[in-house]
Amino acid sequence: MGKSALIVIDMLNPYEHDDADRLADSVRGMVEPLSRLLRHARERDLLVVYVNDHQGDFSATRDDLVNRALKGRHSDLVEPVAPAPDCAFLPKVRHSGFFGTPLEYLLHHHEIDTVILTGQVTEQCVLYTALDAYIRHLSIKIVSDAVATIDPALGTAALQMMRENMRAQIVSADQCLD
Q1: What's the rounded Cα separation, in Å, for the pair 156 and 74?
Q2: Whole-number pLDDT of residue 1
Q3: Domains of the chain with bracketed CATH
Q4: What is the distance between the alpha carbons of residues 54 and 92, in angstroms, rounded to a whole number?
C-alpha cells in the first residue's frame, strides 16, 4: 500500500476579495472537519503540505501569509487550520498547487502516491490541483466536507468532474480518519 499526503489548499485567506463573504459562508462548514483531519494527520505522522496563494506579494513569507490571514476579516476561519511550524509550506501563484511550486518533487521525495485534497475553492484551485495530480499519475482523494465553494453548483460539478474524469475518490473527513 502506498503513502498519502494531506494537501491543504489556500486556507490562509484574509477574505478581502469580491467573493469573500460567499466563500466564508462555505468555509464555516468545513473548518471543523479539516481541523480534525489535520490533528489526525499529525498523530499518524502523515505528510501535511500547505499550498497557498501568495496573494500577489512575491516577497511574502509563510509567516507573512499566516499573519495577514489571521488579521483578516475572518480570522476565526483561519486560526483552527493554520499550519503547524513543522508543516511543509509552498507559496503558489496560480490555481494549481503544482504550477510553479516544488510540490511534485516533495511528493516524489516522500514516495507519496495518493494526495488527499482539502481547502478552497473546490471549483477552482482544488479542481486544478486534482487535474495536475491526475496527469502525474497520483491517486486522488477529495475530502468533500473539507473543501469550500464560492458557487455550490459549480462545486458539485467540480466534484463530479474529479470523480469521473480523474478517478478521484470523494470521501468524508471521517472516512479519512479510519
Answers
A1: 24
A2: 52
A3: 3-177 (3.40.50.850)
A4: 6
pTM for the full predicted model: 0.96
What 3-state class would DSSP assign to 45? coil
Judged on CB neighbours under 10 Å (0-12, 13-18, 19+), 36 is: middle
Task: Determine contact, residues 110/103, Cβ cutoff 8 Å.
Answer: no
CA dihedral 68, 69, 71, 72 (to 10 degrees): 110
How far apart CA 126 and CA 124 sit, in angstroms, is 6
* Exposure letters 38-60 (e unless 16+ CB within 10 A, then b): bebbeeeebbbbbbbbbbeeeeb
Q: Please give the torsion angle defined by the CA atoms of residues 129, 90, 63 and 121, in that order, rounded to the nearest 10 degrees.
A: 0
CA 35 to chain centre: 12
Q: Sign of the CA dihedral 154, 113, 105, 51?
A: positive
Q: Residue 64's CB: how many other CB atoms inside 10 A? A: 15
Helix (H, G, I), strand (E, B) or coil at 47: strand
**pLDDT tens digits for range 139-173:** 999 999 999 999 999 999 999 999 999 999 999 99
Rounded to an integer, what distance in angstroms lies between the CA atom of residue 106 and that of residue 101? 9
130 has a pLDDT exceeding 70:
yes
